[in-house]
Design a protein that fits this description.
This protein has about 300 residues and is mainly alpha-helical. It folds into two domains: about 220 residues, no CATH class; about 60 residues, no CATH class. Helices cover about 55% and strands about 5% of the residues. The protein contains eight helices and four strands. The strands form two sheets. It has a two-stranded antiparallel sheet. The protein has a two-stranded antiparallel ribbon with strand order 3-4. Helix 1 runs antiparallel to helix 5, helix 2 crosses helix 5 and helix 5 runs antiparallel to helix 6.
Length: about 300
């Protein structure tokens, strides 16, 4: 039973990653056209390159806008391909883009009292490079690792095989978290990469329409923010604790305890044999009147 569910989940993970590669390629080309600063920040690309290589990993402080202390290991011309589908497209670096952004969108925030301490101050058009650079790589790397675990699981369970090694179940359990980490990293990269805008100007669309993040700050008090944050965190913490309790309980009960069957127990915490604790004969999980753990699990899920 667990083998079938494992193979189903593995196929879903592998196919989903293949689809994400296609959609991600299309989104990268849109990002090159509409948000060139985000693409440059994703690569910590300080200087314009033609063709531009894709950075696999950087050694040094990627927050250094001059790139003087950063050494990157790159795949030549791959960033040009991701940006425009060829191997010779120029990809502008942060230095050149900052000048273009200042000329097009202004070098200072509007002198508006609603902006508080930022009113009339210079605009920093460079996103947080460590967040965008490493967030982009965590997104891709963890997504690929999740798909790789799916491929390994499909190979090891082929033709009715059941792996007996201890590392295999641990690997598959760890694989459950990888898509969530990749998704979170991608979301953080998306939100941080468009700073300082909440509505990003679109050079290939309706230009002249944008809004700074500082202009979109809600007029709420610190207490209101803390109240909503604590309330939501508490609700999800309780739900997580309940979910963990149910998972641990039914895993310890085993297949017979959860699904029931001839001679099966009443589930976790139930009797260990055909007779109940008082010897009068216990009800199995499949007994409609028993209210056994099988029904409880089916209801919970």
């Amino acid at each position: 039973m667990w083998r079938s569910s494992l193979r189903l989940g593995s196929w879903v993970g592998v196919v989903s990653f293949a689809v994400l590669v296609i959609s991600g390629d299309a989104q990268a080309k849109l990002m090159f056209e509409q948000q060139p600063m985000k693409m440059a920040a994703a690569e910590a690309l300080c200087h314009t390159e033609e063709p531009a290589g894709f950075s696999i990993m950087a050694v040094g402080d990627v927050a250094d806008a001059d790139c003087d202390s950063v050494q990157t290991f790159t795949v030549p011309a791959l960033l040009s391909f991701l940006a425009h589908g060829d191997l010779d497209t120029e990809v502008k670096g942060i230095d050149d883009l900052v000048g273009e952004y200042r000329e097009r969108y202004g070098s200072h925030y509007p002198d508006d009292p609603a902006l508080g301490e930022l009113a009339g101050e210079p605009v920093d058009y460079v996103p947080s490079l460590p967040v965008t650079y490493w967030g982009f790589r965590i997104m891709i790397g963890f997504g690929a690792l999740s798909a790789a675990i799916g491929v390994v699981a499909l190979w090891l369970t082929r033709k009715g095989r059941i792996p007996e090694s201890r590392w295999f179940p641990r690997m598959t359990l760890a694989g459950i978290a990888l898509p969530f980490v990749a998704n979170s990293a991608g979301w953080i990269f998306t939100e941080m990469g468009r700073q300082p805008f909440v509505v990003v100007p679109n050079p290939s669309g309706v230009d002249g329409v944008w809004m700074y993040t500082a202009q979109a700050v809600s007029n709420v008090t610190t207490g209101e923010v803390w109240t909503s944050l604590i309330a939501l965190t508490t609700v999800y913490a309780v739900l997580g604790a309940v979910e963990l309790f149910l998972l641990v309980r039914y895993v310890r009960g085993g297949v017979a305890g959860v699904m029931g069957g001839p001679g099966g127990s009443d589930g976790p915490g139930g009797s260990d044999g055909p007779d109940g604790p008082d010897g009068s004969g216990g009800s199995g999980p499949d007994d409609p009147g028993s209210g056994g753990s099988g029904e409880a699990l089916a209801f919970a899920y």
